[in-house]
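Database export, one record per block. Field names are fixed; values are copied verbatim from the stored entry.
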Amino acid sequence: MQATQAPLAYRLRPKALDDFVGQQEIVGKGTPLRKAIEEDKLSSVILAGPPGTGKTTLATIIAEATNAAFVQLNAVISGVKELRAVCEEAQSLHQNLKQRTILFIDEIHRFNRSQQDAMLPFVESGVVILIGATTQNPYFDVNQALVSRSQVYLLKPLQVSELEAIIKRALVHEEGFKGTVQISDEAITHIATRANGDARIALNLLEMAVMTVGKKISVEHAQALLKERSKRYDQKGEDHYDTISAFIKTMRGSDPDAALIWLFKMIESGEDPRFIFRRMAIFASEDIGMADPRALQIVIAAWQAFELVGLPEGEFFLAHACVYVSQAPKSNAVTVAMSGAKQAINKASTLEVPYHVRNAPVKGMKEQGYHVGYQYPHDHKDGVVKADYFPIGMKPQNFYEPTERGFEAEVRGRLERTRKILRT
């Protein structure tokens, strides 16, 4: 492909750190990575972050700056055969010419375990300096042996101001529009905002605007062309897990307003509403529990209503449940009680049922002691009697400790009175 035919984002890819925009905490002046690049002393690194944040650009800058041999592979189209050939050539260069090889692997998470294992000896020995780029979480999707031998850098989505700088550079650059395009500051901001932190998208949107409107672009033109914000969301990818995590943590933090943002990000990105309802149903017991017993009822009722109505009106039920559980008093006392009970079971030598609470359907069993000593609670004033209901040999323990939040404050008082009768 000729340079003039290449996409704008490709033509404008920076070749020096001084032209690189964003990620200053990683490659700003004085940072370890910048020093390593400038002094040509790079060790293996893994660059992780969303698309359009500069991973491939950084690799290109390193290729321009280093005296080492530089080889690029794409994990989508390369296999073990190509990988082994590169590593063996790197070993030959290292033995014969004392030259290092920097191997840049784009989409490294696409390599399976055996492919990643194939390069491990070469990385470990220093024959190959690895630059791995991934849009996924490297701690989950990259061989941990490779991760442990690399510096991991997490690149963040670019700020609107950084994307505006990239767009303005494109307007005057020799490989861009060379000052021939007039575009309002408002239109630049609109494009930068719609790019969702992705420099490649920002430049693609600018190029599309020029091709569609011409060389004089107003904010109205930009708004008409770019009606929908580009959303970075993959239902099986990293942003899926990050977004549902943010949703749950925000509800746990009792902020219904922020929770609605994450909710509608998921809905508008095509997430299955039933997945969201499942998470809220779990949340209602795990994080609210007895502080508000109605929370689970509200979520289930909203879920049932959704099944009857569907989208788009079903969004009301999602939002209703989200707001309710977000503002509800929180307690994980039930979760803690579950954990305590499970630990007690695992430590117990036996879980024999006490005779006084065993089933005794026939007379002969009662004569052998089954059911003897059992007191019917309803026959007593408080509906509670002194009794030991734990397995034989297990000391009674208090697993469930209600908080003073919401309805659980009332439960706490009632439970204290009950335990006083049961165990004294």
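Remark 1: Residues 80-97 form the longest helix (18 residues).
Remark 2: The mean pLDDT is 86.
End of record.
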